[in-house]
């Protein structure tokens, strides 16, 4: 008879392993992209090249956070709220930065994203303060 719990655990572990390798490839590709975009600083305007590099670096930080989340999940078989909150905070910060550089945001959007950042910050603080590991 098939032990369904073991079967599902093996499938889940396999999927997480594949995702970790995909994220590792994305990290390598992102680093290569940043190195290749350095030419835009010399050829294009410094502002345009700097915008591309900042955008790519912030995106790479998001991929790093997701990599840390999946690596932690593969070790502990649970997702920590702090890691997910960190990744979400980075995503919002990236969007704010990209929007401000491209000057495509109105003040309503900036205020909305800032309020979202505040809420995420409060969630992050509460997740650390009331962590199940501390209890």
UniProtKB/TrEMBL annotation:
Membrane topology according to the record: Multi-pass membrane protein
Chain segments annotated as transmembrane: 15-36, 48-67, 107-127
Record's GO cellular component terms: plasma membrane
Keywords, alphabetical: Cell membrane, Membrane, Transmembrane, Transmembrane helix
Primary site of residence: membrane
Domain of life: Archaea
Subcellular location per the Swiss-Prot or TrEMBL entry: Cell membrane
KW Transmembrane helix (keyword) present: yes
Membrane keyword on record: yes
InterPro entries: P_starv_induced_PsiE-like (IPR020948)
Protein name (Swiss-Prot/TrEMBL): Putative membrane protein
Gene source species: Candidatus Methanoperedens nitratireducens
Phylogenetic classification of the source organism: Archaea, Methanobacteriati, Methanobacteriota, Stenosarchaea group, Methanomicrobia
């Amino acid at each position: 008879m098939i032990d369904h719990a073991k079967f599902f655990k093996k499938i889940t572990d396999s999927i997480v392993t594949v995702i970790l390798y995909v994220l590792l490839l994305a990290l390598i590709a992102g680093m290569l992209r940043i190195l290749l975009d350095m030419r835009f600083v010399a050829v294009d305007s410094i502002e345009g090249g700097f915008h591309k590099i900042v955008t790519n670096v912030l995106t790479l930080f998001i991929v790093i956070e997701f990599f840390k989340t999946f690596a932690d999940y593969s070790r502990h078989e649970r997702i920590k709220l702090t890691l997910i909150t960190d990744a979400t905070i980075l995503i919002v910060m990236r969007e704010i930065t990209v929007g401000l550089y491209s000057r495509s945001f109105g003040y309503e959007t900036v205020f909305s994203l800032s309020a979202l950042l505040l809420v995420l910050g409060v969630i992050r603080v509460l997740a650390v303060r009331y962590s199940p590991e501390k209890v």
